[in-house]
Amino acid sequence: MNFKNLFIKNNKLAINGGEPVFKKNLKPYKTIGFNEKKSISRLMDSGKLSGFVGAWCDDFYGGKMVRELEERWKDTFKCQFAVSLNSNTSGLIAALGAIGLSPGDEVIVPPMTMSATVMTPLIYGGIPVFVDIDKDYFCLDVEKVKKEINDKTKAIIAVNLFGHPAHLKELRRIADEHNIFLIEDAAQCPLATEYGQYAGTIGHIGIYSLNYHKHIHTGEGGICCTNNEELALRMQAIRNHGENIVAPLKIDNPINFVGFNFRMTELSAAIGLEQLKKITRYVDNREKIANTLTSNLSGIDLLKTPKVRNDCRHVYYVWAPKFNYESCKIPRHLIAKALKAEGLPIDEGYVQPLYLLPAFTKRIAIGRDGWPFTLTDRKYEKGLCPIAEELYENSLIEFCICSYKLDSNDLNKSIDVFLKVFENISQIRESFKD
Ligand SMILES: Cc1ncc(COP(=O)(O)O)c(C=O)c1O
Predict the structure, then answer these.
(1) Among 60, 71, 73, 66, CA closest to 48
(2) Measured from the CA of 222, which atom of ligand 1 is nearest?
(3) Ligand 1, atom 14: nearest CA belongs to which residue?
(4) Ligand 1 close to Cβ of residue 89 (< 6 A)
(5) What is the CATH number of domain 6-31+279-351+385-433?
(6) Residue 433: how many other CB atoms lie within 10 Å
């Protein structure tokens, strides 16, 4: 290992009473500024905080700000239709409804994602089928996806986890070949690309999140992108009491036109418009931070820094290295404890593989009788996705760089924390033996 900071060697770790690298907590990341405030203030003066009407009329599609945000989103992400909603979760429901998901249909999902990805199919009686992820990029393993496709499969939901694109073009090809849908959960990946095309626009539908933790945000919010006009209309219907437009629009196949109120307010859209103007700068900055961490820490033998597939852009919602547990046999929680004691806010394992949620193991989701699990023999138990289980139990570490301001001084110190802990790992090994 090539140490830039030699003082780190033989330094007493903070868990053993040494001085921590960070003397103060990192400052939270803040994207909201003057222009957002100005825009909101103008709207408040107008008094019109939503422009939607839940019946067939011009306002069915929402107010001025909502439509403007959708236009700008289409321009930015280069897709034909953008449908704003009040969250990515609502967007997942709208997308699954729009493709006509029906009770008993299977939906292929990864086990490691935010729970909304795997729970939303249940709303329509869809059966989540968990397929393992690959060990390097943490996205759906294409070969394993192929093996699970059968007559019941209606869709694949690929998650571009941590900001890295799944094998999207390949999955789209497979979906088209089988006449099923590829839905992208693009919550964490704005401006990520695969072969030059934006992740979120390669599947039949892609859904971004604008919740508070994301690269840009509107407090809560989501946007569905598609290049298919009918899917766009169906998502607009599910967003806004779609049952009321079936007769006036003479919809002859009104499957899943049971509408919700998933509408975005004018306030959120106004903030979104300002945020969108800054997205390139924010994402570039995030990528620069991640690349600096990777290039400075890739020499640590016990740490595998994040990989980026050829022809992909990773936008680093999370910078997630893997700890090589097999080589040193120190439990990850002790390493994490040591990193945290130095003042670095890291997390471990992301989420427990989601098929271990009680909803699946106890087969209770919608209603008292266990629907829709009454429609399937699929089993949800430990061992289903060994790679996701290993990452959760032993090796994955996350540094949620999006949550912190991270100026160059903080970034240098973050690097120092990793170097200090891994160079002095014998101190942890000693205390572990005790
Ligand atoms: C991968 C993924 N999917 C879905 C969601 C849900 O997004 P929202 O909070 O906008 O509903 C999130 C939010 O963190 C996410 O990270």
Answers:
(1) 66
(2) 10
(3) 114
(4) yes
(5) 3.90.1150.10
(6) 7
